Amino acid sequence: MNAPPIIKGMLFDLDGVLYVGSQVIDGSIEVVNKVRASGMPCRFITNTSTLSLASLERKIKALGFDIPRHEIISAPQAALLYLSGKNDPVCRLLLADDVKQDFSELRQSDTDAQFIVIGDIGDRWSYSLLNEVFNNLMNGARLIAIHKNRFWQTENGLQMDIGGFIEALEYTSSTHAMIIGKPAPAFFQMALSSMGLAAQDVAIIGDDIDADVGGGQNAGLQGILVKTGKYRQSHAEKSNVLPYYVINSIKELPNLLRL
Predict the structure, then answer these.
(1) How far apart are CA 73 and CA 76, in angstroms?
(2) At what angle do helices 75-84 and 185-195 cross, to 10 degrees?
(3) Distance (Å, whole) CA 251 – CA 55
(4) Which CATH architecture has domain 9-47+182-256?
(5) Domain positions in the chain
(6) Which residues are within 8 A (CB) of 75 and not within 5 positions of it... i.e. 6 or more apart?
(7) Strand partners, 151
(8) Residue 179: which residues within 8 A CB-CB, separation 6 or more?
(9) How many helices (H) does the chain have, and how many strands (E)?
(10) Which of 11, 142, 161, 185 might form a disulfide with 204, Cβ 3.0–4.6 angstroms?
(11) DSSP per residue, 101-161
């Protein structure tokens, strides 16, 4: 196999590449250790919006990965960074309770919010909740989506993600959500800036051909699609994204990078 050109840094998607739920993908711990031991800068990026940064770090360590907190970049943290740059914003947070802990210093209101922040809230979705948010938006609130994924892989199979709810709210309120996580170019730039590397010198490995690979390549990175996690051949064939390389699992990455 020919290695991608000029790869000086790696971005790893988490869920679907290193693990699925609480199940570690075969060989992923060893590969991460090998890449990091080579001296190549790494960042571990995720759209996961059900875990606070502290909980995400604990989960990763409990699964056996030796990844320091500063190398983990989550979409909720990117949203918090964005909102913290505003002038004392009032927010309505449709987030998992654990993630809300990271946003506790922000002012909150269900009726007078300037920003509606939406992440994964599981079974709490209902028509009445959607209608409340619709009215928030019609009254001038801005919609912020932690991500807009279509679906994700769980230990029990594929599950619908929040993208459909975001799309419905955009359509009914004639607004466009600000997407914070992948595939937003600003999210990838945050990771690149923390490594001090240019986009063309970095590869992204992910199981989502659109958000991971497509988003990364739109930001100038080399895209590597892995056939684990949410990967489905039928979906990949329908996508307009052409990954730089497609591998069966993360176990093939060291050979691809000639490590």
Answers:
(1) 9
(2) 90
(3) 26
(4) 3-Layer(aba) Sandwich (3.40)
(5) 9-47+182-256, 87-179
(6) 46, 47, 48, 49, 119, 146, 147, 180, 181, 182, 187
(7) 160
(8) 145, 147, 148
(9) 10, 15
(10) 11
(11) GGGTTSEE-SSS-SEEEE---GGG--HHHHHHHHHHHHTTPEEEES---SEEEETTEEEE-
Residue 146 structure tokens: 């932690």
Give the residue with greater pLDDT, 250 vs 153: 250
pLDDT band at 5 (very low <50, low <70, confident <90, very high): low
* pLDDT, mean over the chain: 93
Whose tokens are 């029990």? That residue is 156
Nearest to 219 by CA among 196, 191, 245: 191
Helical packing angle, 163-173 and 127-138, nearest 10°: 50
Determine contact, residues 203/11, Cβ cutoff 8 Å. yes
- Long-range contacts: 255-258, Cβ < 8 Å, 24+? 255/1, 256/1, 256/3, 256/4, 256/224, 257/3, 257/4, 257/7, 257/10, 257/35, 257/40, 257/203, 258/3
87-179: CATH topology is Rossmann fold (3.40.50)
Measured in degrees and rounded to the nearest 5, phi and psi for residue 81 equal -60, -40
Torsion angle in degrees (nearest 10) through CA of 146, 148, 152, 154: 30
Count of all residues that appear for the chain in the document: 259
- Residue-wise pLDDT tens digits, 14-65: 999 999 989 999 999 999 999 999 999 999 999 998 899 999 999 999 999 9
